[in-house]
C-alpha cells in the first residue's frame, strides 16, 4: 500500500525513512541532491495532509560511531531550502530529548533525525533499537528505495512497531519503471552493462540472460569477455579467474539467440593516468603494454546501431573510466545514444546516473533510478527486504 491510501494523516506522527545518503565535498557541501528532491512529493503530500513528519536516514558508513562528518545537518538544510520551510535537525535519532521534540510537534511540522547509523543497532537490524527509533510515531512510510536492499533496523525491524506501514511515491515510481522494463517489457529489450568488473555483475548477467533480447557490454568488464574469446587485450583489466565464466555466459547467450555486443575498438593508454599517452585502436591491435580505458568510436557506432530497434533499454555501468576526461567520451556518447532513442529508457546504479547528469541528458531519459546497490539487486531478480516487509505488513 502507498501513502495516498492511508485514510487519516492529519495530526499523525508519520515516520518517513528516506535515503539522503548524498555525496558531500570536503567542506560538507552537497554535490548532488537528486535523492533529496526525489522524496519531495512524499514529504509534501504528508505535510499538506497535516501530518507531523519525522524523517530518518543514514549517511555514509559511520559504523555505529557518532562522527560529525556524517551528520544529517547538510541534508536537513538542503531540504529546508527545497521545501521553503524550516526543517529542525534533532540532536540524535533516539532518546528522551528527541522524543520531547517529536511530542511538541504541530500539524505540518517537519523534523529530521540524526544519522541512524550512529548506532550499531541500525545495521544489525536490532529490534530494541528499532523500537526506540520508532519514537512513538504512529505511521511508518518507507520512501528510501536506495537502501531497501539492506535489512537494517530503520528499514525492516522497525515495521513491527507500527500499526500502519506504507511505501512512498518514490518507491512507487522506482517499482513501476522497473516492472515496465523487466517484467512486462515492450521488446526488443536491450541491456547495457558496464563498469570495471565482471565479478560484481555475475548474478545480474545470469538474470538478464533469461529476459533480454540483446546485451551490450562495455567498460572494464568487456575485456574479460574479449580475452575469453581469444583476443589479446594487452594490460587491460582482466579477471583471469572469471574467463571461463565469461566464455560460458557468452555461449549461453548465443544458445538462447540473444545478440551479444562487445567493443570492437577502444581508447588505449600507456598507463592508468589522466595524463597518459592515448590512442584509438581496434581490439586486435591493443599494444602489449597498454590498457583499454574507454570504448572507441567504432564501438559507439556499433552500440548505437544496436540500440536503434530497441523499445526498452536498461543501463547500468559506465563504458570507460569516465571520471578522467580522456576516457569519458564513450560513456557520454552512449548517454546521448540512449537519450535520443525512442525506447523506454531506464538507467540506474551509482556511477551511471552521475554520468547521465554530467552529460546533461537526464531530461531525456525516461527514468533514472536513485538506487545503486538496490537497483543492481533488482536486476539480479532479488526481492528487496525493505519492499518485502512492506508487502507482508501492508496493513
Ligand atoms: C547507497 O548509496 O547505495 C545506499 O544509500 C546504501 O548505502 P550503503 O551501501 O552504505 O548501505
Automatic annotation (TrEMBL):
<keyword id="KW-0963">Cytoplasm</keyword>
<feature type="binding site">
    <location>
        <position position="117"/>
    </location>
    <ligand>
        <name>substrate</name>
    </ligand>
</feature>
<keyword id="KW-0067">ATP-binding</keyword>
<keyword id="KW-0324">Glycolysis</keyword>
<feature type="binding site">
    <location>
        <position position="35"/>
    </location>
    <ligand>
        <name>substrate</name>
    </ligand>
</feature>
<comment type="pathway">
    <text>Carbohydrate degradation; glycolysis; pyruvate from D-glyceraldehyde 3-phosphate: step 2/5.</text>
</comment>
<feature type="binding site">
    <location>
        <position position="150"/>
    </location>
    <ligand>
        <name>(2R)-3-phosphoglycerate</name>
    </ligand>
</feature>
<feature type="binding site">
    <location>
        <begin position="349"/>
        <end position="352"/>
    </location>
    <ligand>
        <name>ATP</name>
    </ligand>
</feature>
<keyword id="KW-0808">Transferase</keyword>
<comment type="similarity">
    <text>Belongs to the phosphoglycerate kinase family.</text>
</comment>
<dbReference type="InterPro" id="IPR001576">
    <property type="entry name" value="Phosphoglycerate_kinase"/>
</dbReference>
<feature type="binding site">
    <location>
        <position position="150"/>
    </location>
    <ligand>
        <name>substrate</name>
    </ligand>
</feature>
<dbReference type="GO" id="GO:0043531">
    <property type="term" value="F:ADP binding"/>
</dbReference>
<dbReference type="GO" id="GO:0005524">
    <property type="term" value="F:ATP binding"/>
</dbReference>
<dbReference type="InterPro" id="IPR015824">
    <property type="entry name" value="Phosphoglycerate_kinase_N"/>
</dbReference>
<dbReference type="GO" id="GO:0004618">
    <property type="term" value="F:phosphoglycerate kinase activity"/>
</dbReference>
<dbReference type="GO" id="GO:0005829">
    <property type="term" value="C:cytosol"/>
</dbReference>
<keyword id="KW-0418">Kinase</keyword>
<dbReference type="Pfam" id="PF00162">
    <property type="entry name" value="PGK"/>
</dbReference>
<feature type="binding site">
    <location>
        <begin position="58"/>
        <end position="61"/>
    </location>
    <ligand>
        <name>substrate</name>
    </ligand>
</feature>
<comment type="subunit">
    <text>Monomer.</text>
</comment>
<feature type="binding site">
    <location>
        <begin position="19"/>
        <end position="21"/>
    </location>
    <ligand>
        <name>substrate</name>
    </ligand>
</feature>
<keyword id="KW-0547">Nucleotide-binding</keyword>
<dbReference type="InterPro" id="IPR036043">
    <property type="entry name" value="Phosphoglycerate_kinase_sf"/>
</dbReference>
<dbReference type="GO" id="GO:0006096">
    <property type="term" value="P:glycolytic process"/>
</dbReference>
<protein>
    <recommendedName>
        <fullName>Phosphoglycerate kinase</fullName>
        <ecNumber>2.7.2.3</ecNumber>
    </recommendedName>
</protein>
<feature type="binding site">
    <location>
        <position position="35"/>
    </location>
    <ligand>
        <name>(2R)-3-phosphoglycerate</name>
    </ligand>
</feature>
<feature type="binding site">
    <location>
        <position position="201"/>
    </location>
    <ligand>
        <name>ATP</name>
    </ligand>
</feature>
<feature type="binding site">
    <location>
        <position position="323"/>
    </location>
    <ligand>
        <name>ATP</name>
    </ligand>
</feature>
<dbReference type="GO" id="GO:0006094">
    <property type="term" value="P:gluconeogenesis"/>
</dbReference>
<dbReference type="InterPro" id="IPR015911">
    <property type="entry name" value="Phosphoglycerate_kinase_CS"/>
</dbReference>
<feature type="binding site">
    <location>
        <position position="117"/>
    </location>
    <ligand>
        <name>(2R)-3-phosphoglycerate</name>
    </ligand>
</feature>
